[in-house]
Amino acid sequence: MNQRNLLTIAATVFALTAVAQPNTMTGIKTYHGHYSEWMANSVSTTAYWHYDVSLQAEAQMDTWLAYPDDATSKVKNAVNSYAGLVNSSGKISNGFWGTLGKVTELDNIRPGHFIMEYYNKVDGKESSKYTKACSSLLDNMGDMNRTLEDYEYGPWEHKASYPQQVWLDGIFMGLPFYTLAGPEINVDDADMYFDDAASQMHLTDSVTYDSETRLWKHAWDETKSMDWATKNFNKPYAAKEASDKTSGRSAHTWGRALGWYAMACMEVLDNMEQFGVETSDSRYQTVLNLFQRIMASVVDYQDSTSGLWYDVMDVDKNDPDYASLSVKRQNYLEATCSSMFTFSLLKGVRKGWLTNDGDRNYLSAGKKAYTGIVKTLLTTSGNNLQLTNCCEVGGLGGSKNRDGSYAYYMSENVKNNDPKGTGPFIWASLEAEQIGYDMASNTFPEPVTAIQRVDNASKTAVSSEYFTVGGQRTSAHTRGLIIKRTHYSDGSTRVEKLKY
Questions:
Q1: Which residues contact residue 159 at a Cβ distance below 8 angstroms, ignoring those fewer than 6 apart?
Q2: Please, how many CA atoms are within 13 Å of residue 297, restricted to the half-sphere of its CB?
Q3: Whole-number pLDDT of residue 299
Q4: CB–CB of 137/77 below 8 Å?
Q5: CA distance 268 to 198
Q6: Which residues of the chain register pLDDT less than 70?
Q7: How far does the chain reach from its first CA to its final CA, in angstroms?
Q8: Whole-angstrom Cα distance, residue 139 to residue 440?
Q9: How far apart are CA 215 and CA 218, in angstroms?
Q10: Can you say whether the dihedral through the CA atoms of 381, 385, 391, 395 is positive or negative?
């Protein structure tokens, strides 16, 4: 066979100039080259041990790593300060009044994920104090109570103060850290961590999934006695909300809870891949299939106009049964879940976890969602970027007796730049930027096929042509997806995907 000359085309995504410039879709001015950088520099990260702050700090860290030459001292200081919650002996400060005590709730496990990522990506595994801190968190998890005790690995209860309750939120708070720190620190037990995680995610699916809506409810009460589970509401409610009094599931699908669940799937899959679990492994397939089911339903519930998602996903705000209720506000396009779903769509496609399914085009849905966030939910305050319409909190039971009704979810405060939204928005932006998202026009480039003809003897390109997906001739560009088809004079052909 003749030796072929393989020419290389560099598919470089050029950064936009980091100066103020108009955004034609939103009317705002940009002060950084990418929305990920701009948001990372717009938020304030106070170093204290809480899941939402750690989420934002982790996203800032990923922006720093993605654009190291542009990283500002503000972003670096925020990331390093958060890592500074672990002292030289491996003790964790809670950031307020002293050393973190025994952890009895999954929410306080999540910051450990930041610590592990910092240890691996920034610290360079130089400081043993981080593994000491994470070992103590793993020990705490070993003492946590579980639900569904007939199974070897039942899901952890969400908090000691919420006994025998499984929340979608808790899966994200616990399992990504568990499957990252566990196999790295306790190498000989690596398989156990993945056995445990796959079982917990499967069982959580089985008790929270609602086949009628094809969505997952916010939580499940194993005792089936909590007011939110029996639908003993204390706020105005529609009759249909109270129809299920026996399953133990809460009444509604809260967008952010499902967003946590989707992101947990991705992080556990990442960890499985990192530690050598084969993609054909039944545990990997359990998590992958769950993620694919979640995202199929997410796309089906995407608002067709804005590309975003409503706070309470299973409620149509125009349904007269809900529209007639006396509530603080009606259902609204919510930023934290929209950012989580956008991130999950774009990363899911990039990783090959999501492929087009019937009428569902996951990449198109992700692009529509991202441009929708920019158009609908972004604004500025001075030079700082603001993500609006962030639901501040959402929960069930507790001292406020949150009843899980539609009226309850609508009663919670809405704010700008909640870290539960800014963190996922930064991650979604990093994904969008990898495929050539353009800030100035709020658009993604159209994929291009590059056809190049090469003479083997002279080892030179005879001709190069570029075509759009629709077959129209176009000029070369270096953004987004480029499919290079090289035809050699010996009759052979090489096809390469040069840039996703």
A1: 104, 105, 106, 107, 165
A2: 22
A3: 98
A4: no
A5: 9
A6: 1-30, 468-472, 474-485, 495-500
A7: 31
A8: 49
A9: 10
A10: negative
Beta carbons of 414 and 391 less than 8 angstroms apart? yes
Cα Rg of the chain (Å, integer): 24
**Encoded tokens for 433:** 């930027």
pLDDT of residue 274: 97
DSSP per-residue codes, 271-310: HHHHTT--TTSHHHHHHHHHHHHHHHHHHHTS-TTTS--B
Q: Which sign does the torsion angle of CA 348, 18, 372, 333 carry?
A: positive
Burial of 98 (0-12, 13-18, 19+ CB in 10 A): exposed
- Determine the pLDDT at residue 445: 85
pLDDT of residue 295: 98
pLDDT score of 21: 39
E-strand spans in 392-472?
414-415, 448-455, 460-468
* Predicted pLDDT of residue 450: 72
What string of DSSP letters covers 449-470?
Answer: EEEEEEETTTTEEEEEEEEETT
SS (H, E, C) 112-146: HHHHHHHHHHCCCCCCHHHHHHHHHHHHHHHCCCE
pLDDT value of position 5: 34
C-alpha to C-alpha distance for 500 and 494, rounded to whole angstroms: 17
Q: Name the residue with tokens 């480039």.
A: 445
Residue 366 structure tokens:
């992700």
Provide the 8-state DSSP code for 229. Answer: H
Query: What gap in Å lies between CA 366 and CA 16, rounded to an integer?
Result: 21
Q: What is the pLDDT of residue 1?
A: 36
Residues 6 or more apart from 47 whose CB is under 8 A from it?
53, 57, 78, 81, 82, 84, 85, 95
List pLDDT tens digits, range 41-89. Answer: 999 988 999 999 999 999 999 999 999 999 999 999 999 999 999 999 9
d(CA 388, CA 414): 8
- How many Å apart are CA 407 and CA 235, to the nearest integer? 6
The pLDDT assigned to 18 comes to 31
List pLDDT tens digits, range 260-270: 999 999 999 99
- List Cα–Cα distances, 452 to 3, 457, 466, 469, 478, in angstroms: 17, 15, 9, 17, 15
d(CA 411, CA 427): 28
Q: Give me the residues paired with residue 414 across strands.
A: 391
User: Exposure of 254 by Cβ count < 10 A (0-12 exposed, 13-18 middle, 19+ buried)?
Assistant: buried
pLDDT-above-70 percentage for the chain: 89
User: How many angstroms separate the CA atoms of 281 and 487, rounded?
Assistant: 38
| Nearest partner of 361 among 226, 439, 259, 469, judged by Cα | 469
